[in-house]
Amino acid sequence: MTVNEYNQSVDQFSDRIYRFILKNLRDEERARDIVQDCYEKLWRNVDNVSFEKVKPYMFSMAYHTMIDVIRKEQRISIVEDHQLPEDIHFDQYSDLGEVLDKALAQLPEIQRLVVLLRDYEGYSYEEIAQIASLSESQVKVYIYRGRVFLKNVIGKIEVLV
Fold first, then answer.
1. Is the pLDDT of residue 83 over 70?
2. Using H for helix, E for strand and C for coil, what is the string for 76-87?
3. CATH code where residue 35 lies
4. What average pLDDT does range 4-31 have in this prediction?
5. Contact by Cβ (8 Å): 33, 17
6. Taking the model in full, what pTM does it have?
């Protein structure tokens, strides 16, 4: 990969990677740090990555870096896991985006990852499988389960309006 191709990859993918990490972490500073770390690692490894493969390579690296950050923070502080029952609905709430964000936060990490990559970023099943190191069939199952969970948590549209 040339310097020009590296710069082009920064222009093309940094915003998408940032949004993906931000949607999972909900912390702008940590999301920026992870994106910066990923591009630093890419720069160190620029001779071994072809420009055609940089997109899945960067998303995979961002995902794994995010997991490392989360695990490191969990070792430092005790985090309580708050689970909402599946039958809970957000009665008479009009901000669908916020309701959806809260519901996404309740998904298991791998389901949230594949749902965000598929429905928010528009990646194919094959690309998601490469990024998350899963088979395509596993990706499809996780997406299905995640969507069913979101449907149960959010409930009917009449509840939201």
1. no
2. HCCCCCCCCCCC
3. 1.10.1740.10
4. 86
5. no
6. 0.52
